[in-house]
């Protein structure tokens, strides 16, 4: 552990030094400026040259030096990462203060309840926040800020301040919900999240601007076409992975109280209600509708109020009437069709990708989590835990790119699975499913680490329950105890959590994976509209993502009700 | 004739954090004849729990170690293979575990949990096991057993949940019943019902011998012929 922390510190120090004096570091390595084009680095067919003495890490498609851009991008990543974390903490603190004041007003007769009330209010807020697809929300914020920034029409480049604002406005509830004892640790844990977030936004095209190199942007530039110039995509991702890992390891080394809270005490419901399941379902549906309406208002405000968005701010009543009565979110001048139709025509592909991704993701995490909970401290368990932890720190779009370099039929090292653009060429459902296998695996690998920890914790807590001892005392064989008694509570607890806490991450993964593999879904549409600066389509995609997430969460809740008879009856 | 249960120099070490161990019970020796009732009193609750569980080869946390000799019907339990020990547990030796709100599985019906205890040791068809479960619930005094078999534990009163635990323990007419803190956690008004049930079961020789761990002298007096105090040091 101590060695790991030391290593992480060294890596972070190197990145910080690089970020402070990028020009010096780059020139030390003999690299030109980040935007200097070297025509000799491109051959007669316009193919960039690989790592060589002139360009240590090779040149990108435009003939620019990869190492130099990598070094300059470090500054953006750290600036955005640390500033966003700090700003998110500030916003979180202000909100927590206001909520606390309000709570103490409301409970002036019983002051001891104030803390409890404000804790609950903030927890509810953070939970409601997870009902919003955070990546889409951040994209909307960054895009809405961008046009006031004096960029040329069409090109989206919100600039660093807008990025920091968008990221901190998305992440603040996670800063507010911890108590003051863990302030430093919480802030430090937000840094890797913000760095990954910045990379994802830059990858989608809402980065600091076309002339400023970012790791995410470099991966995006390396993505289209045949995966031949592997160096231009591999190295930015490695730099990102190392930085995220280093900040995450350092953050978790900061002593804090155990963040794992004990599972909420399950309250038995003794009185038999007439139709509790229906009641439960109805309550969930109403709550989902409320979230939907509130979040769509938020989207309206983002696109209407934030700096000078031209031509998209219709009056609120028109917006609401169109959205909820006609499912109409505007007309796309470029494509000459309604945006609702445009998004819906892309939806089946994305739904297919998302559904398969969720199955692969949950399957992988269940297997790995079960193994690591039931066979703790074995070699396989250690490799698995460390491996998924590293993969969770890697951006999913970069994993996709690496998978293409390694396994794609067209141009991979090992010709294993259909790669880029295979989906567009496939005509049968089986062919399309085959084209999606690689994206599904990538989604599962990238997300398994997140979920694995939850699965393992559930298994571990289930295996130490008193009813497991009862089962042993009955003389039941161990497999029956594990797969009948423990699995039952594990599955039930997980189903409640899956939709709630992971829906947002799953949707983000699907959106980010689509452009990499050339899958013509909603994520691809979003990326293309960002590049065109088409705000109406972006808004339509954000609203659509909102609807999908609300439905996913609702499905998770209802599944939980079916698995847990205490809710059902 | 050798006694039903003979315990010599029992010691239990529980695993602590970072590989160290802690001895919760040391030097316990006693014997129990068929038909006899014995109460373990004194000591700490963890020590009494460790003593009871060690008799069936279990410890309350993983990685614990049991030393000494536990002879049941002349057979050394601690030297048996896990599968052999498992066949004795719940069949020859019934066990009412330390009371807790979760000693019954919260998501499995009461009937299924009782049936499971029967079917793991006896080749019984499902309908027969179901009928046996209803009989058992009736025996321990759960009201409306025909409906209670389908209930989930939280739908029963605390007293009835305790009765179900007892029903599971005596499901296979064990020769020895071990009951840990039988009345702990129940309101005083319910103590009498549990004591009546256990002493009634003993009088009818359902379990031929009974070992009770308790801190209450009245409970010990009601259920046991003999009291064995654990030394405070152990």
What is the fold's blueprint, element by element?
The complex is a heterodimer of chains A (569) and B (234).
Chain A (H helix, E strand, L loop, with lengths): L1 H19 L1 H7 L37 H41 L7 H16 L4 H13 L12 H18 L6 H22 L10 H8 L7 H24 L22 H30 L10 H11 L4 E2 L4 E2 H36 L4 H15 L2 H12 L14 H4 L3 H35 L2 H8 L4 H40 L4 H11 L2 H29 L1 H4 L1
Antiparallel strand pairs in A: 1-2
Chain B lengths: L4 E11 L5 E12 L4 E6 L2 H10 L10 E8 L2 E2 L5 H7 L4 E4 L13 H10 L6 H14 L5 H4 L9 H12 L6 E5 L7 H16 L5 E5 L3 H7 L2 E5 L4
Parallel strand pairs in B: 3-8, 3-9, 6-7, 7-8
Antiparallel strand pairs in B: 1-2, 1-4, 4-5
Helix pairs in contact in B: 3-4, 3-6, 4-6, 6-7
Structure characteristics:
heterodimer; A: 569 residues; mainly alpha; two-stranded antiparallel ribbon; 21 helices; 1% strand; B: 234 residues; alpha/beta; five-stranded parallel sheet; four-stranded antiparallel sheet; 8 helices; 9 strands; globular
